[in-house]
Amino acid sequence: MSLVSQMNFQNPWWVDKMSIYGDDQVKRALSVSPKFIIPPPQESVLLLGPRQVGKTTFLKTCILSFLERGVEPTKILFFSCETLRDREQLISLLHDYRAFINSQEAYVLLDEVTFVKEWNTSLLHLFNAGYLRNTLVFVSGSTSVSLRRETLPGRPIRKSVFYPMNFRVFYDVFYGKIGLPTINILQVEEFYRGAVKLSPYLDRLNKALLEYVRRGGFPATGYVAGDPLNSLYETYKDAILSDLAKLGREERVFREVVEKIVDFYASRISENTIAKETSIGSHNTVASYLELLENLF
Predict the structure, then answer these.
(1) At what angle do helices 87-96 and 3-10 cross, to 10 degrees?
(2) Range of the domain at 43
(3) CATH code, 20
(4) Could you read off the pLDDT of 106-123 as tens digits, one per residue?
(5) Strands 135-142, 106-111: parallel, antiparallel or unpaired by DSSP?
(6) Cα–Cα distances in Å, from 228 out to 50, 108, 221, 223?
C-alpha cells in the first residue's frame, strides 16, 4: 500500500468530516462516564509516557477538537508510524502529504513515532527542510531509555510526559471533586484544619484509595470490569521485551535480575548479592540492568 493510500485510510475525515465520531478511541472517550478529555495544547509537543496512559486517545480527541473548531479536514494529518520502517519513509510521508494533500498550514499528529529508526533525525530534517513550517506537530512515543534522552535542538517542540493519574486526579475523575484546596503538609495547623474538613468524606476516600491501589492510575483500567490488570500485563511484558531487544540487552540476564529482586522483596539486597546468586557474575552488569529497569518506568 502506498503512503498516500495509507494516509487516506488513517484520515477518513478528509472525505467525511463526521467519520471522526466513528473512531474507536473517540467513541470511547465520548461514551464513558465521566469523560476525561484534555484540550489540545497551542504548541508543538513531543508526548512521552508509558503504554496505556491515553496518548493515542489524546491525539484523536485533539483531531475532534480541531474539526469542531472548523479546521479544514485535509489540514489535519494523523499517522500511526508502526508501519514505517525507517527515516526515509517518514520523510517521504510528509513529502507526499505536502505534495499531494496540503501545502499550507497544518496539524501533524504522528503516533508511536519511536517505531521508526532514527525518528529524531527525521524530524530535525523535516523541520529544517520546511515541511513543518506553520505547523503544529504532536508526536507521541512510549517511553524508552533512548526516547527520554532525545532532544530536538533549536526546534519549537516541547517535551511532555503523560504519567498514570495520581490519586487526587483519579478521585476527581471517577468520584467527583471535593472542592478543597491542596494542603501544605509542612504546615501542621493548616494540615490539621484541612484533614478535619475531609473527615466527612473519609469512607468514600478509603473506598477510592483501595480501588486506586487495585487499578493503578491508568485511565483504561477505570472503565473495565473484573481484574483491570489482565488487559495490561501482556502489553507491558511485550513492550519491555521489545525495548530490551532494541537496546541490545539480554532477556535472560534481565529475567534473572528481576527474579532475584522478587525473591528478596522487602529485604535489602546489593548488586554484588544478585551477581553472586545468579549466573550473571558481574555486579557492574547487574547495576546497568537495574538502571535500565528504573528508566523503563
Answers:
(1) 70
(2) 3-161
(3) 3.40.50
(4) 999 999 887 788 888 888
(5) parallel
(6) 16, 33, 5, 9
